[in-house]
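Need tokens for this chain, all 1103 residues.
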Amino acid sequence: MFDGSFKSKRTINLGGNKQQVDKQKLLRQAQEERRIREAERARLKAAERIQAWYRGRTVAARVRQDIRDTWDKDIITLQHNIGSIAQLTSNIIAQLSKEAESIVQKLFLFFRPRLDHQRLVQLCSILSLPTGSTKTRLVAIPFQSTPDQQSSWRQLLGRLLPVLVQHFGNHSNWSEQEADAVLTLFDTLTLPETYPSTQDTQTLLLSKHYCQTLSSAGIFPQLTRFLGRISIDNKGQPSFGRALLLAVRILRASEQTQGHTESADQFVSNILTVPLLPNRMPIETLSTFTSRLPLDAILLHLSKSSHAALTSLPQYKVTPLLANILAFGYQRVARMSSTVSNAYLHVLTTLLGLVPRDSIESASKHAVDDDEDMDDIEWRSEDLPGSSPKSPLSTAKLDPKMMKWLALAYDSNHLNDILGSIEKSTTVATTATGNTQDVLSAGSVVEITHLLLNLITLFPSHKINILSNLMYFKFGSKAKATSGAGTAQATSGKALSVSIITIFLDAFTSTTLYQQLLQSMQRDTPLSVQLVTDQGHAKAWNLLAFVAELYCQILVTMGDDEFYDEKKNPIGLQSVITLASVVRDVAFLLWWNDNSLNMESNVGGSMNLKVGYLRDIVTKLTRQLHARDSRKVFCPKDHWLLSMPLDMTAFKRAVIQDEESLSRDQDIDEHDGDDIIMTDSEHVRVQRSINRRQRTSQLARLSPRLGVLNNIPFVIRFEDRVSIFRAFVESDRQRSAGMAGYHPNAVGHAQVHRGSVFEDGYEHLNHLGPKLKGRIAISFIDQYGMPEAGIDGGGVFKEFLTSLVLQAFDTNYGLFMNTSDQLLYPNPHQFAQERTQLKHYEFLGRILGKALYEGILIDAAFAGFFLSKCLGQVNYLDDLPSLDPVLYRGLMFLKNQAEDFQALSLNFTVDDEELGQTVSKELIPNGTNIMVTRENRIRYIYLMAHYRLNTQIDRQCRAFFQGLSDLIDPKWLWMFNQQELQVMLGGAQTGISLKDLQQNVVYSNFERTDPTIEYFWSVVEEMNEEDRRLLVKFVTSCARPPLLGFAELNPKLCIRNAGQEEDRLPTSSTCMNLLKLPAFKSRQRLKEKLLYAIHSEAGFNLS
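Here are the structure tokens for all 1103 residues:
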């Protein structure tokens, strides 16, 4: 019960027992009670502060609301007063100035963006109202009042404009009427005609002052936020155009002021980064904006003082900025001064280097005018061992409208205008070809190199068009008129004509890097990796990469007759030879040092030249030049071999170990797949191919030696590569179960009729797939249905193989056709692409794979373009003469045609004969409606040659290669080009060397000095080449000598004594390379019997 005392009573223990109290516990209890009391006091104080704050806010809100109510009345009164004014007098000016100041000051007292949006808009409308007969805007009235009022008004506007600017950007729901009120006020303050004065300088200063005020208040980013909320479909909305014109006005007002740099940077990073800026404006506004935009000043500013501002832009702003600069600049380039055109070039180059490559490449894949990529590695490219991995495409998609603006970057007219307007050097230089020409300045060469490299890497699907346009550009052909001091040629007005490849090759050969490369070649010393990482060589590497890209494109459409013609080849042959040496050694450097170089890093710290890209392009040029030299020699002997010494014994040993290690991993990956492959499962084949690609993508990093052999194999001698190939096969044979040594249990059996070797072989052996590597037992059935005599120790299979090849590659069979040089290539007609025929091509691929695996030479000569396709490479125009010389001559005529294309009536279609009917096929989408012109003729020539050489036989070659790769690992084949592969398949196209044959024969029951042997060699010496080939075929089953001579035969070719019966014919066992020769006592008798035997072709029954 409450007794009036506020103190609690003491607790008294009446029990009489004294309690033991823990002092520490008592202390802790007291501390806890004190803490609770302090917390309670703090809570009460906080509550008091909150209540005070709330009361203050509530009172302030009421006060603000009262001011709002007053302000609403005042604004109505002011609006009424303005409407009743007929003429401005000094008293009226003073009164209006005071009222205007009052409503602005009051607004600051209560303005809250969320609550007072309409009041702010209303204020803008009131300040923009015209007054009196002079129609002077209210906002300008105070500037006609007393100096004190002018000063006060300027201060108020200085406070009002930042508030208005921020609200303009932050508010998300502007109506057109509301935006119009704000923009009208901005226009009023920034236009000189707003301020009536007798002194033009005063009005100009006022307008500039408020332009600077708006700029300082952050008008550009806030205008950008406002513009970003307007849909591109609402291009008729006036506020969009007015906002842009305001931005341009503010930018121009800042010229020649201290704040110009910041204003220009803000304008570029905000206004010019609005996506699809030209598409958002109606034609009238676009025309006005374009005419007022100080693009030249912007370009000069960006190129000189704001490079850092460009590089620091967020990635999402770079692409729109590039598109907008192209949109507003591409039509002005031809009229730009040299200084501005150089600035334009620099800005474009910088922005192209900053654009995310994956997004552009992804979008450009869907462009209407896509070209097929023209790499020298086609469907093999994804399997290219150690090739630079491609970045996954970005999921971000660019608007197709923006891609149209970006496409201007590689537009031929645009590029020609840029190149034609670049400032020329005023000095005379001597080119690599010995001609004195006026060349570009060093700075221009560097900029153009960066620009063009950026274009071809950023727009890979348009690389053909870009490079084709550059191929025939001549500097000086559109040279501007020059004045003042200069060269004699310039002064006389004579138009110079210098090929772009010549100028850039000259620029490269004048670099320190080039000199160091030559010195290394002359001294036979290896190149240093530091050459790639040295920042001082970055520009030189860019030049080399561009020269390689452009010359690769030139070679694509250059026939051999042009290549060897000094007048038609823009680079003289001697310069080509030197260039070939350079790219050969650079390619080797980059492949050999894959482990110590990061392929994704930039060369020498350059902006965008990746080490991997440089390696790919110099490798491509090296391969193209080597292909030319292989077809018709122009380089010195052993030119393609490494200039640096290489321990080949150690190289072979190491590369074989690398291959064995990789193959063991491959066997583990594919162990489950091999058995299923025999069932012809397409799914497993695809999965196997994917697994192989994943492995080989890292091959060069795991084994630089294999990277060299698979990409630039010709730097190693052919004989050494054949030796390595044989070692690979033997290693594979040892790893494969049941294949090492001789095994009596064959993996496959086939009874083959001599009249249907191909059909029987296909039926019995095709299902074996990779198991064809094992021993195959063949039994021939003669025309009477009887098994032929002979035990197959390997020789019968060799005869089966040669017979099958003879039948399958007969042009009457329909799978293959002959060129004019009697070289074989797949039938290109539609029926050859049916599933059954493709299975036949696949089987033939396996058969040739078996021949390579066993070292059996076949009697068939293939067209180079077919073998090139089988190796996964792309054929070019220079391969066309072997297929269709008439078409080749027509295309070369078209290439050199200067005009009158309309009379040719050519379009982008090709006619094929299918089953007696002519079928027209389009080379590109809508090709029927696209006529061939002077501008696109190079593209037409490439596409036509590409169709004939690659597209028509693509499926057949893929099937053939699929079967071939079942037995021969593709990377083993990639050690050879098409000419070398032909030698691998069919032997060397050389005569039978009697000396080589004699030195590599062993005798059984004969001595070298026996009369029979003397007679034998005497008869062979008299034989013509055809009879010698028949003799070799009789003993070994192949008419050509082995690749590396008869010493390569295993077992050695042997002549055995077959007894004293001179009536018997000489016989052979081809499986053992054995000639069974009776001991003839008469030379004439031996000659008759030997010639009869080798001409009989009676099979094993002859034995």
